[in-house]
């Protein structure tokens, strides 16, 4: 039995990542949620061809759902396959759901999936963020700031 050291980083197998989200949204709090999947969806996720770039989370009838995520069909499953774009239930505690519901009620806030991965126990997890959409001029400002930080780091490296 391996003992995990305190503060040691855990490697996750990333199945899908939403890279555009950090550009298009101002990311606030993030949380890890479970995902209710069918067997063929898990097999297909392990192949790493899924996409969550156009998806979002929504609270409907007191439950949290992942809408418009794409998990391709698993070829070896034949007729027992799943629908690629079906809504998938996200698993959170009631207190976390209430917190998310309150955040979405505020002006301009949305629930954006950032990463779909397998944790160290092999369970599919989704990193969900409470985010606020950026305007075009905010995106340009963020790009300028990121470029300046990169240039500053390069200058500091060259000077020693």
Automatic annotation (TrEMBL):
The keyword Magnesium does not apply. This is SsrA-binding protein. Residues 138-160 have a biased composition (Basic and acidic residues). Keywords: Cytoplasm, RNA-binding. The gene is smpB. It comes from Candidatus Phaeomarinibacter ectocarpi. Pfam families: SmpB. The keyword Flavoprotein does not apply. It comes from the Bacteria. One of its GO terms (molecular function) is RNA binding. It is found in: Cytoplasm. Residues 135-160 are annotated as: Disordered.
């Amino acid at each position: 039995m391996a003992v995990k050291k305190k503060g040691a980083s855990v490697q996750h197998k990333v199945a899908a990542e939403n890279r555009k989200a950090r550009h298009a949204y101002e990311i606030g709090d993030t949380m890890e949620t479970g995902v209710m999947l069918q067997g063929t969806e898990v097999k297909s996720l392990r192949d790493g061809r899924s996409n969550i770039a156009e998806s979002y989370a929504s609270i409907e009838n007191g439950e949290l759902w992942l809408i418009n995520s794409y998990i391709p069909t698993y070829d070896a499953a034949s007729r027992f396959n799943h629908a690629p774009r079906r809504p998938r239930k996200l698993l959170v505690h009631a207190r976390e759901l209430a917190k998310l519901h309150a955040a979405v009620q505020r002006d301009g806030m949305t629930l954006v999936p950032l990463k779909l991965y397998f944790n160290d126990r092999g369970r599919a997890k989704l990193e969900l963020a409470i985010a606020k959409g950026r305007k075009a001029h905010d995106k340009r400002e963020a790009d300028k700031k990121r470029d300046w930080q990169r240039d500053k780091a390069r200058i500091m490296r060259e000077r020693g």
